[in-house]
Amino acid sequence: MAAILPRRQAARLGELFGRRFLPGLVAIEGAPRRGKTDLLLQLHGALLGRREVATAILRLGYQPLPAGAAAEVAAQLLACLEWRRLPPGPNDSTVKPVLSRASMARLAEREDLAAWKELLDAAASDSYGFFAALGRLAAEIGPVCLLVDDATDEVLAPVARSSVPELAVVATASGPAASRWARQVVAIEEFTAREGTLLAEGLARHLGVEFCGEAARPFSAYCAADPFVLSSVVHAAALAGTPLDSTLAFVRAYVADLRRGTLGAYFPAVLGARLGSLERRCALEWLADERYPTAAEKWRGRVSLDDVLANLAGAGLAVAGPAGWMPRRWPAARDWAALQLARPETIESEAARLATAVLAAAHAADGELAREPLRRRIAGGLAEAVPAATFPSRLRFREVCEVAGEPLPGGELFLCYGFTGAPPAAGSAALLAVAVADPEARLGSVLEEMENRVRQALPFSESRTTPEGTAGVEKWVVMRQPEPGDAEWAAGHDAQLLDFERFNQLIAARSDGCVAARWETVLRLPPEADFELAAVRALDLLAERAGCDAQAASQARAALVEACLNAFEHGRTDGSQSSSASVEVRLAAWPGCIEMAVSNPGAPFAPGGAGPGQSSLHRGHGLKIIHAVMDQVIVSSDLNGTTIRMTKKFPYGGENRTAGLPEHEQAASGI
Amino acid sequence: MNKLRLESRVRNGSAVVYLDGYLNESGGELLEQECRSLLSRGCRALELDFGRASMVNSIGISYLLDVIENARQGEARLEFVSVPEDIRLLFELLGIAGRVPVRKP
After folding, report:
1. Which of A167, A221, A428, A599 is buried most, with the most CB atoms less than 10 Å from its CB?
2. What's the pTM value of the predicted model, to 2 decimals?
3. Could you tell me the CA-to-CA distances from A264 to A216, A221, A564, A582 in Å, in that order?
4. A554 to chain B, minimum CA–CA distance in Å?
5. Residue A220 and residue B86: Cβ atoms within 8 Å?
């Protein structure tokens, strides 16, 4: 007899897995389109966010395999398990295995992997045989959890009858089958992110792995977890031909969860620091703002084309266009985010390239991406999973890429892709590109926009999609050949349209002229130890761009660390050691000057005093350091919190150029 | 700016502690414990080598003050060596340079 949990008790889902052992089946039951799959995918996404849990997907580019032939066979075996479609049924059931690291290690060590793979392949058409084989494997290597979507009797029955304690299954089902076979049934009517997190937490316990909540996670762990978590998921879903709806739902749920912070507040912070959000702003501000040519007479700094390209790459911008679109003068772009989609008849190749470019861009800031092996893997996988026959030639992949720059300060720059006739893989990759490029404020609206575009683009349509969801954008750089109607569109949206030629002219003018640039970024950091390093990382990038000398950069770094530490302490509004609202760090720099503002919510604090939970012995030096190394320090407090604004000037080009800033630039630089 | 790692070498009652990484609160605790241990084992000369220290924050410095105090109580000679310029500046600001010999790289 199955125990049925109503929706009101769904928040207790984690308790299901809190027991040391939960063999058999847990079913998530509900009417169609009520969120069962979302819950399952959320569970999967949450699990993928845990370093303690390994899956085959992650190893696409994230989990290094042990050396040796056995590892390769293990990879094949796990690939064999992934998203397997199990017949029969009105809907194909899909299966996703999740292994603990220990299980994964034991699997990789086995010498008879080839035999196992053969066995599972042979049983693929027979659910009983397949689960029986999996059960035997689980009995030997340790806990294996299977996530099964749209399970039917054919799937549920053998699992329910399995006596292998190491095999756990979480399945969704919309019919009465679930309650017939499952030991536990979760009847849900709507999906919440919290449920998914609780499930993940409980499942991690069930698998015998340590669950680390985001608050307990050290910064180094977050650095190790990188965008591949998301990108691999999206890519793998595309590889397996997962329906577009599911992929979109997964990305949406995953990103929404990131935004809510339930998977950890680290994505905005780490991505912001690692993927160069400040450089994104730099590039787009530079491209969109036409003040610079007039300011050139006074400013003698230079921004080279390489700077722009580096900024684009650092921003995680994946740029695509039709054949011949990419100017020959941008050869280096091939190595970064930009790519030439020159063969519209080879959709799978384009999708693979786009996905590769996105991933490459995501890692451009680190420069450690093993791009070539990854590219081969993705290209090969897509070519196999997305046969050309699936997409008739009339569905040629026609990519329109637009870069939009909002007026700064405070404006967000984001990238919109319009896909026409694109396969799900390309759509997923584009969503990912947006997610990477804009992990913070505008993500939700951009995702909606992207989803609408992808939906509208299937099936193929010649009509040009317009960025209706991006009101307020004043300037657009249309990175494709001009089309009739562009000007009318721009006039109708009160936007200025810069065609590609004009774009090139701007680049040429700014490369030749005397141009100074201003860079800025905003980070929101959880008030946890070592997250000040994310701010330092961003500052280093910014200071380097602004031409800051080593000594001034070092002093600004020291001040920033102290300001962050102060904010972390005082931002805990209840005085406890638990994290609460995030600390906002605003950084801006231009030749000759760095400005930093660190804001924390909570009650005002006395400058120089120790924070809650800190003895005066160990605190109180921070502001002393800040005042000593910065040229200007302003501490302002109100009931909403405290902000420390700091300015550091440095010589640039043989003189202190900050004195020469135009007034309106000085005003605009206020942070 | 990784987590602080320490390596100690003891010879004839003198110890050299090499700091590698970010001297923050956790690193400071580690360092203070290590120095206390060395002193309790009879070391009467301590040398802290900052050659591979990437950064120091004020909390880490407060633990250095503890180390200085422990060394003074144990009547041990203490010296900071290979101190990078930016860290030396912080030492000067917070009065450490006046209490302990600080040598540049």
Report:
1. A428
2. 0.38
3. 10, 11, 19, 12
4. 6
5. no
Give the tens place of pLDDT for each residue, B66-80: 999 999 998 999 999
Under 8 Å CB pairs connecting chains A and B tally to 58
How many residues are given for chain B? 105
- Beta carbons within 10 angstroms of residue B35's beta carbon: 27
Chain A: nearest CA to B77, how far in angstroms?
23
Enumerate residues 6+ apart whose C-beta is below 8 A from A328. none
Residue B102 gets which letter from DSSP?
Answer: B
Q: Which residues contact B77 (CB under 8 A, 6 or more apart)?
A: B44, B45, B46, B71
| Most distant pair of Cα atoms in chain A: their distance | 82
Amino acid at A214: E
Q: Show me where the domains of chain A are located.
A: 3-211, 277-512, 520-668
pLDDT along chain A (671 residues), means of 10: 38 37 58 62 53 36 32 46 39 62 69 71 63 76 72 66 68 60 50 40 40 30 28 32 42 41 28 27 30 29 33 32 28 27 30 41 33 39 36 22 23 25 34 39 41 38 32 41 59 54 41 42 72 78 78 92 87 49 78 84 56 48 87 81 88 42 34 34
SS3 B76: coil
Give the start-end residues of each E strand in A237-388.
none
Count Cβ atoms below 10 Å from residue A468 Cβ, excluding itself.
10
Instruction: Give me the phi and psi of A265, to 5 degrees please.
Output: -80, 10
Amino acid at A629: V
Residue type, A524: R
| Topology given in CATH for the domain delimited by A520-668 | Heat Shock Protein 90 (3.30.565)
Asked if A291 contacts A529 with a C-beta cutoff of 8 angstroms, the reply is: no
| Backbone dihedral region for residue A567 (phi beyond 0: left; psi -120 to 50: alpha; all else: beta) | alpha
With H, G, I as helix, E, B as strand and everything else as coil, classify residue A420: strand
What tokens does A107 get?
Answer: 């699997």
Do the beta carbons of residue A248 and residue A454 sit within 8 Å? Answer: yes
- How far, in Å, CA of A506 to CA of A487, rounded? 19
Q: Please name the residue of chain A whose CA is at the shortest distance from the CA of residue B56.
A: A558
Instruction: Report yes or no: A523 and A536 within 8 Å, Cβ to Cβ.
Output: no
Residue A484: what pLDDT? 61
Longest dimension (CA), chain B: 34
Choose, out of A531, A555, A566, A621, the residue to mutate when testing the contact with B (most B CBs < 10 Å). Answer: A621
List, in order of start, the domains of chain B with CATH numbers. 5-93 (3.30.750.24)
Q: Given the structure tokens 């796990």, which residue do they identify?
A: A78
Q: What is the DSSP secondary structure assignment for residue A390, as one 8-state letter?
A: G
Task: Encode pLDDT of B17-76 as tens digits.
Answer: 999 989 998 899 999 999 999 999 999 999 999 999 989 998 899 899 999 999 999 899
Amino acid A182: pLDDT: 59
ipTM of the assembly? Answer: 0.93
Residue bearing the bigger pLDDT, B5 or A403? B5
Q: Kindly give, in sequence order, each residue whose CB lies less than 8 Å from that of residue A403, ignoring residues fewer than 6 positions away.
A: A284, A287, A317, A319, A413, A415, A476, A477, A479
Six-digit token string for B104:
């540049």
Pairing of strands A641-649, A593-601: antiparallel
Only one residue has tokens 């609160």, namely: B25
Tokens standing for residue A660: 């020469």
Across A89-127, b (16+ Cβ under 10 Å) vs e yields beebbbbbbbbbbbbbeebbebeebeebbebbeebeeeb
DSSP conformational letter for B19: E
Q: How many other C-beta atoms can be found within 10 angstroms of the C-beta atom of residue A428?
A: 31
Residue A525 structure tokens: 């950091």
Per-residue pLDDT at A94: 64
